[in-house]
Design goal:
By secondary structure, the protein is mainly α. It is built from 22 helices and no strands. The relative contact order is 0.11.
């Protein structure tokens, strides 16, 4: 599974593996086609089958990573990737309310209003509320998404209230399918398989319809271009990811420390964000909107923050910046390690998830990309555990109560510890040989 391995251009020499590939791809597509079936279940009865589907797809993804070897294998994989996305174009985003908010914010921008200043309940938007589907929650909160993301939302919303969600899901499907393309020539087939088949990347894109589908495409391109030593192009791709959602800025130092021309890389990586903000302000928009409020108040499914907050409930104003500072210091230390860039990116993203007060399952999408390029048991374990926080959706959707259970926190912590133990054992075995 070495990311730097050359792509075999001859048919697979391992006949049993080759014979097993097509049935596994078919199983992958069949499982993916069950997501819309889960969505059709009554409110309050979706979490368990969705989590079972996630686990099953995880096993299939690991199987595909072991089976794919040749260019012919990869062609079959790409066909399967297209089908897994197509069967979910119409799947409602039952795990989240974010896509409805995306499209609403885009529609607000198209009317000439400022979604960074006007929440959905604003009097100025009464006419829009009468003709465009508006969000199902957070009515009193203005948007927090960066201007480049708002441009994508507006693009989908421009297709009209009846077609906007399909337009958005179609854009997501294209981005999700293309995520494996940057690695095709520069990484091993296993990397491509994980980029396309990872359930985190598949389900959070095609069921959750999250903006992060575009971010992970840009990040996959940045890592692949860095492997090819095309640092300027890698910087621009990373810059697009940062301009879409500020969080990828966390790994900017990891790339900068490895780039041969560090100042130029940093400048190019920040250029898309600066340009998109300049255009937004020229259009009369006022980003970042509610982002400071989100950073100061939101929390969900984060074991470390939850444990600390339970002990120091009155010190959250200190706790959040302290965690962020500790995480940044650790990330900078990780950035200085020699070895594969993708490994450092992976570990930095893992640190970011650990110190964040918010650990929504789709926040693991960038980690899933880095983990494809640099697999580790710890990252796989965390990615497998994060979706279990979706247990909250059943009660929320059936009776309107947002009451997250505590067991997903313990489960994620246990998964992290188990993965860390496996990685440590593997490292010990390598050193003892």
């Amino acid at each position: 599974m070495a990311p730097s391995a050359a792509l075999p251009m001859t048919p697979s020499a391992d006949a049993p593996r080759a014979r097993a590939l097509i049935p596994t791809v078919v199983l992958w597509v069949v499982l993916a086609a069950l997501a819309p079936v889960v969505a059709l279940r009554p409110a309050g009865h979706r979490a368990v089958p969705y989590l079972a589907l996630h686990v099953a797809l995880t096993l299939v993804a690991l199987g595909l990573a072991r089976l794919v070897r040749s260019s012919a294998d990869l062609r079959a994989l790409f066909v399967g990737a297209i089908l897994t996305r197509l069967v979910n174009l119409g799947t409602p985003a039952f795990t989240t309310t974010d896509p409805a908010r995306y499209l609403w914010d885009g529609a607000v921008a198209l009317t000439g209003h400022d979604p960074y200043a006007l929440p959905p309940l604003a009097a100025e938007l009464v006419a829009l509320r009468s003709r465009f589907p508006w969000p199902t929650d957070h009515f009193d909160v203005a948007t927090c998404y960066p201007p480049l993301a708002l441009g994508l939302f507006a693009l989908a919303a421009a297709s009209g209230p009846a077609r906007a969600m399909l337009a958005w899901k179609s854009l997501i499907a294209v981005a999700s399918t293309l995520t494996g393309a940057p690695a095709y020539r520069v990484a091993s087939p296993a990397v491509v398989a994980l980029l396309l088949a990872s359930p985190t990347l598949l389900l959070e894109s095609m069921v959750g319809a999250h903006l992060d589908a575009f971010i992970v495409l840009a990040l996959a391109a940045a890592l692949a271009l860095a492997l090819s030593l095309r640092w300027n192009s890698a910087a621009l791709c990373l810059g697009v990811a940062i301009a879409l959602k500020f969080v990828p800025g966390w790994i900017l130092p990891v790339f900068v420390f490895r780039a041969p021309r560090k100042a130029l890389f940093a400048a190019l990586a920040l250029a898309p964000l600066a340009l998109s903000f300049a255009v937004a302000h020229a259009l009369g928009l006022t980003p970042p909107g509610s982002l400071p409020n989100f950073a100061a108040n939101w929390s969900f499914a984060a074991p470390l923050w939850s444990a600390l907050y339970a002990r120091f409930p009155t010190d959250d104003d200190t706790l959040r910046p302290a965690l962020a500072l500790a995480g940044l210091i650790l990330t900078l230390a990780l950035s200085l390690r020699r070895g594969p860039l993708a490994r450092n990116v992976r570990d930095a993203l893992l640190v970011q998830l650990i110190v964040s007060p918010v650990a929504y399952p789709w926040y693991g999408m960038s980690l899933a990309v880095a983990c494809a390029f640099a697999p580790s048991a710890t990252a796989f374990a965390v990615l497998t555990a994060l979706p279990f926080s979706y247990e909250v959706i059943d009660r929320y959707q059936s009776v309107g109560q947002w009451t997250p259970a505590r067991w997903p926190l313990a489960f994620t912590t246990a998964a992290f510890a188990l993965g860390l133990g496996v990685d440590a054992w593997r490292a010990w075995r390598r050193r003892s040989r």
